[in-house]
Amino acid sequence: MPIHNWTLVDAGIFHDFHGTWMVEIKKALNSGVLPPDYYALSEQITGGLGPDVLTLQKPNAEEISLDDPRGGITVATAPPKVRFHARAELDLYAAKARRLVIRHRSNHRVIAMLEIVSPGNKNNRHGLRAFVEKALAALRAGIHLLIVDLFPPGPRDPQGIHKAIWDELIENEFTLPQDKPLTLAAYSADQFPEYYVEPVAVGDTLPEMPLFLAPDIYVQTPLEATYRSAWEGFPPFWREVLTSSPPSPPT
């Protein structure tokens, strides 16, 4: 199913789809995508990088090590198939932070977070700043991230949400392809964090993206299948609005 042009509807309409899609992703992760010792929950606190976590705790490396991935994929065996990949060559000090999440059942602490960007995360300076700061707080706490942004760059993120985040870690020249202005970004949190970015466009099929459970172990997130499931329950009127209008040209 092609990615739709969500700029054609207001934020409330996308919010409805966003919520359903997040539930479909959670169901898929808990139905065999995640290894047995992990589970996904939709969690929320007030403001910022939603869905948020009631308490954000730094994982204990000993508790979440995966000597036996039991369903996870090692980067060495099968590197994620994305267009862009880089590592930040700098130290990130663990920072205290409060914050669909992935937890390990041995201690129920947060291992990873998945976020679908909403218009409110980018339509003003405060929203973007709050999103970036919470993403950075998660990475500094050792929380892996998967961020899905189906909205084109704007004046506050001219090269997309990924560059806005990565610029806070290290100076970089990342540039989105003009014909692929939407961003799927996976982050492996470690002393030297790494990103795996796949740019996409309206009309593309969503690829699977890595969701890291440890710095070198991930599972593939079925974005396309869950997007399709969420679309099936979307109101017919709004489906017609989104499918009868031509895609907007890349900015």
Describe this structure in words.
- The protein is an alpha+beta fold and 251 residues long.
- The chain has one domain.
- The protein is built from 6 helices and 10 strands, in the order αβαββββαβαββββαα.
- Strands 1-4-5-6-7-8-3 form a 7-stranded mixed sheet. A 3-stranded antiparallel sheet has the order 2-10-9, with helices on one face.
- Helix 1 crosses helix 5.
- It is globular.
- About 14% of the residues have low confidence.
Short description:
The chain is of the alpha+beta class and 251 residues long.
Oligomer description: single chain
The major β-sheet equals: 7 strands, mixed
DSSP summary: helix tally: 6
Number of domains: 1
Encode the helix/strand succession as letters.
HEHEEEEHEHEEEEHH
Strand content bin: 15-25%
Strand order of the largest sheet: 1-4-5-6-7-8-3
| Low-pLDDT segments | 45-58, 61-69, 88-99
Number of strands: 10
Spatial gap, N to C terminus: 23 Å
Radius of gyration computed on alpha carbons: 17 Å
Quickly give the structural class: alpha+beta
Helix content: 25-40%
